[in-house]
Each structure stands twice: as C-alpha cells, then as structure tokens.
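Query form — protein AraC family transcriptional regulator

QUESTION: What is the three-dimensional structure of this chain?
INPUT:
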Amino acid sequence: MFGSEVEVLWIALYYYQPGDRLGEHHHDCYQIFYIIAGRGEFNAAGRRVSLGQDMLLLVRSNQIHSMINQGKETLKTLDIKFNIIDPALQARLDALPECVFSGLTEVRTALESVREEGRSKEPFYKELSAVHLMKILLLLLRQAERAATARNHSANYLALSEQDPVCEKVIHYLQEHYAEAIVLKDLAKSLGYTQSYVCQCFRRELHCSPLEYLHQYRIEKAKEYILYSDYSIKQIAEMIGISNIHHFTRLFRRMVGLAPGRWREREREGIRKNIYISDTFVNPV
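ANSWER: The structure tokens for AraC family transcriptional regulator are given below.
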C-alpha cells in the first residue's frame, strides 16, 4: 500500500477567538498545529511556548498539551492528527530535541493539500494525503539535521533548488515588488538583460513566461488575503498590484476555477469543520 509509513486521521482549519482555549489533554495519535495567523500560547509536555505566524508545534503520541489565545487577534491554525506506522520513522521523530519549528512554509502548502484531498475524496485520497504528510515530516527532520550541524547560522533551511541566475534575479524582483505596477521591458533593462532574453530563460527553466509567473504569484497571495483576512475583493486586487477589479476577477476565475467571492465562501465553509481521512477515526477534542 502506498504511503504505508504513516496514516492521516483528521485535519481541520480552526479560528480561535481571543480567550479561546484547549484544556489539557492527550491522545494516542500525533498532532501538528500550524499557525497561519495570530499568536497562541501552547503547553506541551510541561514546556510553554509562544507560536506566531508560520510556526508549528509537533505534539507526540500521548503527550499532554493545551493552548490558549491570549492575544487580541484571531488565532488561525491548520491542525492535523496522524499515526506513524514505521518504527524507524517514529523513533526519529520522538528523538527530535525540538518540538517547535519555523520557516517551513512548504508545510502549510502540504497541509492545505491534505485538507483538499480529504474534502474532495477523489480516488487515492488517503494515499496522497499520506504522501503529503511524509513530506511534512521529512521537512521537519531535515531542518533538525541542518540545525544540529549549523547552529550558528540563521539561514532558511528550505534551500531553493539551483536556478538560472537570470530567472533567480527576476523571480526575486517579482516576489518583492508584485504589489507594484511592473513593466517587464523596464525590469529586464534594470537588471542588464533584454526582455526577449529573460523570456527565453523563463521558458527554458520554468516553462512559463515572466508574466505568467507573476500572475500565479499574485493569485496565490490573493488567496491568502481572501481566506485569512476581511479585506474586500477590490482591496485585495489592489494589494497584489491589479487595479482593475474586473481583470482580477477574470484572472482569478481562470486560474482557480471560481470567482474570488465564491471561492472565499467555499473555503470558509470549511472553518472548524472536521475533515476525516480515516474512516474509523473519531476526534476526541
């Protein structure tokens, strides 16, 4: 069976209002709390930790833990519960000196993929959910390994794959300035290249044009604002560098499959909604 090292049981998107709490409890399965926005105070195995955006807490099997939102903002989390079937993998995770991780934004992407698999329940959704979970756990192990050998470095341990230096420069600029009006010809010239050469590099390395990359990046940013903020669709369009709301709506619908407002409604319907991957798992808390 594919993904036999782990078993995903449950995943949910939660909004904890100021003052909300989870009392002390434990369960046989493992759990990951990933912080999307806000800040929460967690207790795990007697250790108190404060977690903010893009940080996560790994809770081991039968480990007593609790949480409280003592801040003034909504605490938004993605929570996943799972079993580890492979004894070697379980031993590696249990031996980790740290239970708090940060800087692993790929984990959020993988968690959202698990959530979508559980919601759609397409063929092989359990197996694909397990694959995404394995990626998450391996990222945690990799960060721990690198931290052990380079404790004096504060680099992001998710090293980017090697790219053409031209693409790398342009991508860096697009990600830093996506909210501004960008003219590719002027951008290429400012970096010492021609527009046609930049386009050739993108086609060769990324199989898309710089404009297509920018559109995709802007839409991913828009999805974050749409789901995790209360800005209007028009405000969000302007925040990602698109001044024409009609153009933004057409672009969003073409790339996502739904209009921005409808996508927000559909995604928010899943808040505090348990999504079960395992047919037999009953979530105790």
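ADDITIONAL NOTE: The first strand starts at residue 6 and ends at 16.
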